[in-house]
């Protein structure tokens, strides 16, 4: 690797393949590109149905599917200390030098980062979401984030809006937070070989059909657009609790022949759905960064999206039409998009996306963050506890107690099973012969 330092990274999150989403994609593609750069990358997540134990994915990416089952929204049940033995074993077995946790509401991520800090490892955290400050759920989540980031070496956010949100929620110094956006595999998301006819305009929606993704907005927007434009047809891919409302809307307005409901769409089939449309519609109510918009733009679709979170940072103004998360404003945005469709060149848009977003660039920027994290000085337990005390009058004391107990459990484990008794595993070596350097694995990942 020349002068480049070789890192040995453990990626941790409750969200990984075969589940599908922006976080899962981010971890996978980032890991593959880091492997291409010569680093060792291991992923730790919970078991998914019958997928348990150690698995190898494309490019030699090693994944530990820890035998815990999710209990709520793909999150494992919080145990605080139950994960310490397995986290310690993996860190020693794989000779890890740095732990990288993903997603603020991943229980496994928070616990692994806590144990890693106790054991003296440098930790990096990536926040993929935006949270509020007023409702009970956000208040509790923000306190948990404040605990996790109190001693984090460096942090990464996927947009500048996300960085502002994270700094405000956690009290983390802004200079420790870096902005590194997501990217898209443009080799996988290419426009249709031939131009689509514009006699019938197809609007594509691919999203989890949940409240946060604005499924309720679609219920009001779709009938109005169909009324104004007889030549417009909708394709809706995805599943979720709000699918029932969309089905009811379709029945109520007799739009069965103009609104096609696909259900859950495997990630390997997303491109084939996108290239059948002219416009991609995103109705999210909150979004730190939307990878689905990148995938649609890479396929040559003009995007109509709500102006929320980090979405305005994603695409240039001539590639997206933004609207308030309001039905009437979204209808007007779709009208504007239809009027400028003749000026859209899918192939040109795809080429621009190749220049704007690249996973190799994301990996190189993340590599710099790792270098900075490893240069952070080590501190003894007392200095570390002082950081937690600043988290609040009662919360600070509680956080200190949690870390002291974790420190005691770790030393008990050291006596019960010394590190020398845990066998280090040999590194997996694989030659990479992919044309674009991004290996792929699309095993039954689907929206919904």
UniProtKB/TrEMBL annotation:
GO CC, any one term = glycosylphosphatidylinositol-N-acetylglucosaminyltransferase (GPI-GnT) complex
Which EC number(s) does the record attach to this protein?
Answer: 2.4.1.198
Which enzyme class, named as a word? transferase
Q: GO MF annotations for this entry?
A: phosphatidylinositol N-acetylglucosaminyltransferase activity
Transmembrane stretches, by residue range?
A: 388-410
| Record's keyword annotation contains Transferase | yes
CDD domains documented for this protein: GT4_PIG-A-like (cd03796)
The pathway this protein participates in, as annotated, is: Glycolipid biosynthesis; glycosylphosphatidylinositol-anchor biosynthesis
The PIGA GPI anchor biosynthesis domain sits at 46-135
- Ranges for domain Glycosyl transferase family come to 198-340
User: Which GO terms of type biological process are on file?
Assistant: GPI anchor biosynthetic process
Source domain of life: Eukaryota
| Protein name, per record | phosphatidylinositol N-acetylglucosaminyltransferase
The taxonomy runs: Eukaryota, Viridiplantae, Streptophyta, Embryophyta, Tracheophyta
